[in-house]
Amino acid sequence: MIYKELKIIFLSDMHLVHKDDFLGINTFNSFSAVVDNIVVNHSDADCVVFGGDLVQDQSIASFNFFESEIKRIKSPKLFSRGNHDISDKFFINLQEDDFVNSTNSDWEVLFLNTYSKGNIFGEVKESDLDLLIKKSILLQGKHLLIYMHHNLFLTGSPWLDMHITRNRDKTLKLLSKMRNLKLVVNGHVHQETRNQYKGIDFISSPSTSIQFTSNEKKFKLDNRNPGYLEIKLQQEGRWEVLCHRVEGDFGSPKINPKSY
Ligand SMILES: [Fe+2]
């Protein structure tokens, strides 16, 4: 049988704002352009993961827009909850698909929740980690990809690093016990980063809205266009991640913004 690699699309941090721009960016247009790009180039995706921080302004119009846009994507959809996803009703009603890996690839995709109610920073529950470790043992012989919202590695930008996963040291220590874990992907930091810890690779995605950069003392926006990740999970635990940016004019990122 010919080996079929698993293709996962990861897009994150839409921060949808109805009527207005968001720190200079039209988030409806930028999200739409990313969805357009995915529909054209990745209709064969085995799964599309939405990394969280979906709606910024909590307006009905933005929630409706999000739901109508994602209907254009036909692949199974998974959702990770971000610190801005404060509406229980909206998040619980999102139609998450049962993603069953129907290819013959030897990978499995798992979720780790970092949502901490009322906080911007992330926090992983020890009970969730225990459960994940048990799952990883049951999935021996499979390579694992985990998706989550918050980051586990510093970006070097203190205003952003204060919102990291608070118990990241403990989380990293426990994740490193999962012998079949190969790759972890997150949103939240609005930029592509790559880190390694005990043989596990950790990558983050650009946002579909405003972009951030690393090693900036003060809150500052980046000029790069919106983007997303294409993750190819291959034979024998190999993988490839491509960062795609979409073309177009979505506004001008605000200079000297106060906060987000
Ligand atoms: Fe976030």
Q: What can you tell me about this protein's structure?
A:
The chain is α/β, with parallel strands linked by helices. The protein has one domain (6-245): Metallo-dependent phosphatases (Purple Acid Phosphatase, chain A, domain 2), CATH 3.60.21.10. Helices cover 22% and strands 21% of the residues. The chain has 6 helices and 10 strands; from the N terminus they run βαβαβαβαβααβββββ. The strands form 2 sheets. The chain has a 5-stranded mixed sheet with strand order 3-2-1-9-10, with no helix packed on it. Strands 4-5-6-8-7 form a 5-stranded mixed sheet, with no helix packed on it. A hairpin with a 2-residue loop joins strand 7 (193-197) and strand 8 (200-204). Helix 1 (27-41) runs parallel beside helix 2. It is globular and about 50 Å long. The protein starts with 5 loop residues before the first strand and ends in a 15-residue tail after the last strand. The structure holds fe (ii) ion (FE2).
Number of DSSP helical runs: 6
Average pLDDT value? 95
Structural class: alpha/beta
SSE string: EHEHEHEHEHHEEEEE
- Please give the domain count: 1
CATH topology: Purple Acid Phosphatase, chain A, domain 2
Terminus-to-terminus distance: 50 Å
List the ligand species: fe (ii) ion
Largest sheet: 5 strands, mixed
User: What's the overall geometry?
Assistant: globular
Helix amount: 10-25%
The fraction of residues in strands falls at 15-25%
CATH homologous superfamily assignment? Metallo-dependent phosphatases
